[in-house]
């Protein structure tokens, strides 16, 4: 959630921010009108309450008919104030609904444009050259008997998969690799709930939480399945006041994630690239607002280190404003070369959400030197998304004999094996 006070003070800046995001700038005007109406009703109720209080203070000093008349007047005023309460409550709810639809203003350096306008900051590693026709991860997974998408369709429908044998072990190896690396950096390993209260989801995501195309909801419950552990890790401290000395609080979330992907109908339907369920290791940071951009660079550097050590070719993209999610003020994507796609595919993202999520969930810290409470900043970044990491490893590491060369950092987690082979000759 953005700061209503800032919208009042800088409406033109927010209109410009919405235009940059390719959103409707008139949302600012609707917020301001709803705010004006709410404040008008608040003032009316306060005037009535003040009159009621004056009457209640005068009554003990009165006697006879004057006393009875004043009591009757106080009751009329109280009834008028009470009659205003439904309108005030509706105005407050309407304002909050509109306010939660306002996305975080993008950082001034964020590129203009939409989904195709992200700026490539750097390319690391060269795509492999094969002396044979390379196969995609679906064919490789079938020949190595580690991926089965046909049987998963019988179980759960499209966009699901079975990982088996070395596929399951490879995913576990990736998770342990990421958790161990992040643990060495001081991140706290955390397995969170996969179900999130709707109010927390709205606090984390803003208006996007209400998009039925994105989120699986539990029928009859005020709960939804988390699309990423970021949702639970960010909600963990809802309503709390943290100590400045404890910041940054860095968490390493290990969870199964669920995505409806209803808006991606017909897109990336083959294999594991765009699925409804996957396992992921996520970085999350509660950070001092003065250091959040430094923290953003730190998380990106960790992501790159993880990927460089795996030997996977990738590029870093600064995402354009029109492609940012509502909470993010800036986001980087790491896109990894995938021979089966003949191009790069997103494998990680890294976002600075500034105070948007903390304000939505009322997460603050108490400055050590005194002064008022301040909102923390929150940041998140993918360490490893199992399915897409496996795609990249299989397709980049494939060899002419049908085996797959494993990245050296994963070898200790796979019993010392350096190559994946079919289970039967």
From TrEMBL:
Any Pfam family the entry gives: Seryl_tRNA_N
EC number assigned by the record: 6.1.1.11
Residues the record lists as binding ATP: 259-261, 275-278, 346-349
Catalyzed reactions: tRNA(Sec) + L-serine + ATP = L-seryl-tRNA(Sec) + AMP + diphosphate + H(+); tRNA(Ser) + L-serine + ATP = L-seryl-tRNA(Ser) + AMP + diphosphate + H(+)
Metabolic or biological pathway, per its Swiss-Prot or TrEMBL entry: Aminoacyl-tRNA biosynthesis; selenocysteinyl-tRNA(Sec) biosynthesis; L-seryl-tRNA(Sec) from L-serine and tRNA(Sec): step 1/1
Main localization (coarse): cytoplasm
Annotated GO MF terms: ATP binding; serine-tRNA ligase activity
Annotated site location: Important for serine binding: 382
Stored CDD domains: SerRS_core
Subcellular location: Cytoplasm
Annotated Aminoacyl-transfer RNA synthetases class-II family profile domain residues: 136-407
GO cellular component, one term: cytoplasm
Principal EC category: ligase
Family recorded in the similarity comment: Belongs to the class-II aminoacyl-tRNA synthetase family. Type-1 seryl-tRNA synthetase subfamily.
Cited PANTHER family: SERYL-TRNA SYNTHETASE
Job description of the protein: Catalyzes the attachment of serine to tRNA(Ser). Is also able to aminoacylate tRNA(Sec) with serine, to form the misacylated tRNA L-seryl-tRNA(Sec), which will be further converted into selenocysteinyl-tRNA(Sec).
Complex and partners: Homodimer. The tRNA molecule binds across the dimer.
Name of the protein in question: Serine--tRNA ligase
Originating gene: serS
